[in-house]
Design goal:
heterodimer, A: mainly alpha, 78% helix, globular, B: alpha+beta, Ferric Hydroxamate Uptake Protein, Chain A, domain 1, two-stranded antiparallel ribbon, 27% helix, 28% strand
Chain lengths: 170, 131
């Protein structure tokens, strides 16, 4: 007979989610000197492949920790939905195994990051302010795209293998 | 796990076209490059009192560096002694000639190595014989 449990998460999941939330925070800090080069996109894609929509848990731990670290500014509002968008897209594509596909997705996400994070700026500063925000951030978006492509190409396969092993998947 | 070539190709094509579009928009919207944050005027007055005026845009802190960059003086001289301005040489040993450096007509207290420049400054180098 299965022992009843109050927890909706297994002990392993609690550890993995906490660990990856911490790694996303630390990874962002370590790479902070390289503008818009980040490892969060890769972690989120791989976490979603392994844990499905439960990947939203470490994502929002990361989002709120960032809010505590940097203050709840205008950027925080976009963080509340941007990473969730990546989780949902990754979840939709979870049956696909192509490294090129996931690399392209991470690149597209990096390129569109500025546009995706612009709605609060449109709300606060109007259409002109929002468009200015997007255009001013273009160079960062391009860097973000290239950084995501390189990181995904290099680390997607080994990280996915690791997480699948942790999850007990093949 | 599926490997969908069609979706991979579509996403890759979307990525490349978005990247090209973003790069194009970025290039079209970037601000013009600044050639120098300070604009100064430097006039060389030769032995015949002929004036040649140079408008210099520079970020340099001192006059000598700005003049070297514009090739008004051939090279930087650590001891502050400059014999040639705009290809014209004044050598005390030849005919007691020298370059009198002034700022808006007033002789400077220090040499061009130590003259700090600000936007809008105006200097002159006048070929002078004797005192």
């Amino acid at each position: 007979m299965k022992r009843p449990t109050l927890s909706v998460f297994s002990p392993k999941e609690i550890v993995v989610f906490g660990l990856f939330a911490a790694m996303m925070i630390i990874g962002k800090e370590v790479l902070a000197f390289l503008p818009n080069i980040e490892i969060v996109t890769l972690f989120i894609m791989v976490l979603t492949l392994s844990y499905g929509l439960r990947a939203l848990i470490p994502v929002y731990i990361f989002v709120f920790a960032e809010g505590l670290l940097y203050g709840f500014g205008l950027w925080f509002w976009s963080y509340l939905y941007i990473w969730a968008i990546l989780v949902f897209i990754s979840f939709a594509l979870r049956k696909f195994d192509s490294l090129i596909l996931w690399t392209a997705l991470s690149g597209i996400f990096g390129l569109l990051f500025g546009i995706l994070s612009s709605p609060p700026h449109f709300f606060i500063s109007g259409i002109g302010g929002g468009i200015s925000y997007i255009i001013a951030g273009l160079s960062f978006d391009i860097t973000h795209c290239i950084g995501n492509i390189v990181i995904t190409l290099a680390l997607f396969v080994p990280l996915k293998k690791l997480l699948f092993k942790l999850k007990g998947k093949t | 796990m599926k490997t969908n070539k069609k979706l991979t190709i579509i996403l890759s094509a979307v990525l490349l076209s978005l990247l090209a579009t973003f790069c194009t928009v970025f290039i079209l919207n970037r601000p013009d490059t600044e050639t120098g944050s300070k604009t100064i005027s430097f006039t060389v007055i030769d032995a015949e009192k002929k004036e040649t005026e140079f408008e210099i845009k520079t970020d340099e802190e001192f006059l000598a560096n700005a003049l070297v960059n514009e090739k008004i003086v051939p090279t930087y001289s650590a001891d502050g002694l400059y014999l040639t301005f705009n290809g014209i040489t004044a050598d005390w040993n030849d005919n007691e000639s020298w370059w009198c450096i002034t700022e808006e007509g007033v002789q400077t207290a220090v040499g061009i190595n130590d003259i700090a420049i600000e936007d809008g400054d105006s200097f002159e180098a006048t070929y002078t014989i004797g005192f």
